[in-house]
Amino acid sequence: MKLTNATEQALAIMAILATQDEDVPASSQAIYQKLSVSQSYVKKLLRKLVVSKLIEGVSGNNGGFYIERDLNEISLLDIVEAIEGPLHSFPHIGVLEQAFFDFNEIAQNGNEKITQVFTQADLAWDEELRKVTIQAVLTNVFEHYGEIPRKDWNQIV
């Protein structure tokens, strides 16, 4: 299984927004310049994060984006699913049934067993990512600073 680059970029967006001055939303321009990717691409990622209710946007001259929920309530799984959708690692396109159609019930039973293994692995993956919040990651990253630093990313670009 491999996540797309969009997941890493979404994590970077969330880190930018989590360290943004609380009174000032981060502009999409500041975000796409920090990520060095196209504005239209960043807008697609921002849209997915908004639809998933992880961030909120404010329109207008001083508009931008901010994190909508408490950082302790946003898990890595929330971000991955916002960008990638729910994980289903086993494609299950019917190749096993087709290859062993002569064995009808045995082939079906084998397919069910394989599917169960991958489903359990997917659930374990989900559970591990669900345990890790944005707050926990930032606290770990900034453990020697005492607190999570804030800046106005709009002023940096």
TrEMBL record:
MF annotations from Gene Ontology: DNA-binding transcription factor activity
Cellular component terms per the entry's GO annotation: cytosol
Transmembrane parts of this sequence: none
Top-rank lineage group of the source organism: Bacteria
Full protein name: Rrf2 family transcriptional regulator
